[in-house]
Amino acid sequence: MNPKIKFLITALTLIVIAPVKAQKKEEVRDFFWGNSNKTKYDTTIPEKYKDESAVVINRYDYYDYSEGFGKVKYTSAAMRTVKIQDAAALKLFSEFEFYQNFRKSYGFFSLRDKTLFGVRIIKPNKKIIEIDTEKDSKEIDNKKILAIPNLEIGDIIDYYYYTTSSFIAPIYHYFDPEEETLCERYPVLNYKLAFNTENDFFVNFQSINGAPQLKKVDTGKSRERLYELTATDIPKADYPRWFYPLVELPGYKFQVCLAQNNAAEDLVYFIHSQSERDIKSSVTKEEIKSFFNKRIVPYSGSVSKKNLNGFLTGENDIDYIHAIFKQNRFKLAKSYDTSIAEEAKINVPNSLYQERPRDLEVLTTAMRYCLSNDIPYDLIIGLPRYDGKIEDNILATNFRILMRINFKEPIYLSGLTPFAVYDGIDPILEGTKAYIFAQRGSGKLTSMTEEILPTSTAEENKENVQIKITPSSDLQSFIIEARNSSIGHLKRENQSNTIAFYDFLKEEYAAAPKHPYEDPSSEKRKMEQFVKEMTSLVEKRMEEDKKDLPKEIGEEFGATVLEAERKIIESARNEINAPFVFDTKFKIGADFVKNAGENTVIEIGKFIGSPVEIAEKERVRTANIYMNYPRTFENVLTFEIPAGYEVKGLEKLNKKVENETGGFTSSATIQGSTLTVKTKRYYLHNYEAAMNWPKMLAFLDAAFQFSQEKILLKKK
């Protein structure tokens, strides 16, 4: 299938969205292509861009926030005008994928959306061919697929989407933030961002990394406000692997909130200006302190053995903290049960129904315990590394909240996870500057300091895979048995990829003081029906997962997997430092075998999986390197040498490339009839300056080269 341009329209959570009225189609078309659009651009491509795959002649992003007659109206729209200059761009723009009718349920709320989508082709002779997007598109899995007919190199493709949503006006509401770079994969000749607001709508806006400043445009109406940002001749940007665009490329961040009175201004999760007439472009530390003082209030009740309801397993303070999180993790499991059942249209008994516990509520319960027992702790306000520096942040929704309990060995709490008693420092916060607040008896935030959060090491985030390879007698198939053991952030990543929801629920419910399916007699029949339907659903999901496993492993190994099974040995969900362990056993054919007369060539390097391959276009890099965390990957591979054969070519399996960014080492030995190959690939930091890219390439290339190495099984 050809690559597609995807428009995924972000839905507003917990509101009902009204469809765009049919009679507005012509108005929307006129907004972009008709007389309403007064801005006209020269379609001549500058000489310096003649060899580019495509050039964006015009990029226009538009938003509108308004309120009237008790309803809020929100519009999100975008237009692109693109000159197609080679076959690669022609292929990319030859097919579009978009959601026209969007519907999703969130508990009792339902979202509906209708997107108007327009496409036209402008030929070199100025002839315009407008595509009937409704008639010419096909619906597949609730998505519209639109193939663009008669598109050729040299054409201009001009397209837009336009979404309008309306909902009953609350006294306060904050909209999703908009965070964009001005650059695209192609040069942009003209760019405009425009958005409208009215009274009671507050705006935080910030141009980043050298982008032009926002300007206010006089509308002639005191209630309405129009803002614009324009730029011209924006060079294309590469978006390489391990890269944070909003940290390095020019762009903008903005967010809008509605607050209809003074009380609402204090309640909305938004650090706004004093007046909606003023754009807020910076946030002070004191404003941050004041903001969180109103929103992080310790739980007002007591935390005792009784209300921890059987989740307490010891008398130490750390046991109480564990119990608080275990109790809420049990609620998290019930909320998973609830949402999965509702999605499958299974009626949920009242005693089982559970909304997801809020992370902040869990933290405030831990705060209350600490305050009641004179245990010192700090609140930490951080910002993800991909969002830039914390002192530049203007969006409250981008902040992350952590709690550090200052035991002899401090522990960090950030929220609920299915995979541990409590979460530690999110890797995306490691090594960043954060604001540290003390919170004492009154529950108010007091002193405020700055601190660089700890960074984990490559040895603390480690995956070790023991691989046993047993060839068939004719060397045309192999049984592979792998035991994967991981710790640190790799443990969490592997748990997320391996533990299915039914494994989580089974283990969580088994450890609970009372199984939630043991229901009061008043709902006995309803619970019995629920258990019957959920059991059927789980069995179906398990069968689907079992069927999908060979394909999943095959994609990882680059081979056709004939059969596969997987078993979790240690979920390690209750032990902070214990490794997560699972076994995988599978069979492949002769994908890695080449016959050479009576001898056989085995591509032994491919049995450790697919390492990073750096393409030629990636080898020159000017962007800095941003990775999630330092990490280590170890493999110990044992290969049973068939009787009557000896191994040649071991010298190519011994490699060693190490420097200050990381390394790759490998070794091979034979003892008896067993070949043992050991490899280690590691990344020492979560960030490297662009100047260190050649050093990273050195060990990445060594690791990839190892994956291409072969051994010869020579007939004795």
UniProtKB/TrEMBL annotation:
Origin superkingdom: Bacteria
DUF3857 domain location is 80-236
The record's Pfam families line, in alphabetical order, gives: DUF3857
Designated name of the protein: DUF3857 domain-containing protein
